[in-house]
Write a structure and sequence with these properties.
Layout lengths: L2 E12 L6 E12 L3 E5 L6 H8 L7 E6 L2 E2 L5 H11 E4 L11 H11 L6 H13 L15 H13 L5 E5 L7 H18 L2 E6 L2 H4 L4 E6 L2 E7 L9
Parallel strand pairs: 3-8, 3-9, 6-7, 7-8
Antiparallel strand pairs: 1-2, 1-4, 4-5, 9-10
Helix pairs in contact: 3-5
Bound molecules: adenosine-5'-triphosphate and magnesium ion.
The site of adenosine-5'-triphosphate has 13 residues, from strand 2 and helix 1.
Length: 237
Amino acid sequence: MPDVLVADQLEMVYGEGDTSTRALKDVSFGVNSGEFASIIGQSGSGKSTLLNILGLLDTPTGGRVILDDQDVTALDRTERARLRNRAIGFVFQFHHLLPEFTVSENMTMPAQISGRRIGEEDRERTTRILDLLGLEGLANKNANELSGGQKQRVAIGRALMNQPTIILADEPTGNLDSANTEGVYRLFREINQDLGTTFLIVTHDRGVAEMTDRVLEVRDGELVQDLRNTYLPPAGG
Ligand SMILES: Nc1ncnc2c1ncn2[C@@H]1O[C@H](COP(=O)(O)OP(=O)(O)OP(=O)(O)O)[C@@H](O)[C@H]1O
Ligand SMILES: [Mg+2]
């Protein structure tokens, strides 16, 4: 399988001089198409820094990001934004829904912000995704009338609207109870299997990471481990 996303010797230094922080140190790995992977590490280890760089929200101070065979570092701001909108879906710890807008308006908001007129196709896609998320019938409810778990599912739905190649999630269940946490992971799995969407999920919860197929561990800005869960039965009984 070809790599959809490559981190190539990524470096990130915040600030200058004595007060600078080296948040990433020579981080390299590739994510294959259709993979369901997680990034684990303690608070301050550099997980969000890494995810934001991979998601083209931030620019590294060294190294390259290659997304869909394109060297992103070579692109200008506009091209980068276009690639981000086309290829990447984000899910954050806090859902960032607009409370005064309906569920379907929240789902189509990114398209509207990018200046596109919302048409029949968008409405059909909204309905399909809401069905997939078990939110059928909630399209016209205001976001502030939903439960925490429902809101997070809408945020996942919003990330799926542009049919992204990869979903980058930063502590997507950090704000949910254990039942909703499991629900969100089950949903991610279904999306991964049904739509072939690649996942890279940041978490500090090892139990959650172990539900994924591959665990990348970041410690103090360095990639220190890259383990694949193979689910093979024990050999020879
Ligand atoms: N904008 C910034 N300016 C300066 N330093 C920053 C900035 N963002 C992050 N850092 C520093 O970079 C390091 C990595 O931070 P990062 O947010 O990536 O950690 P994290 O692994 O996501 O932690 P958490 O689990 O708490 O979210 C930390 O030392 C942090 O203080
Ligand atoms: Mg973080």
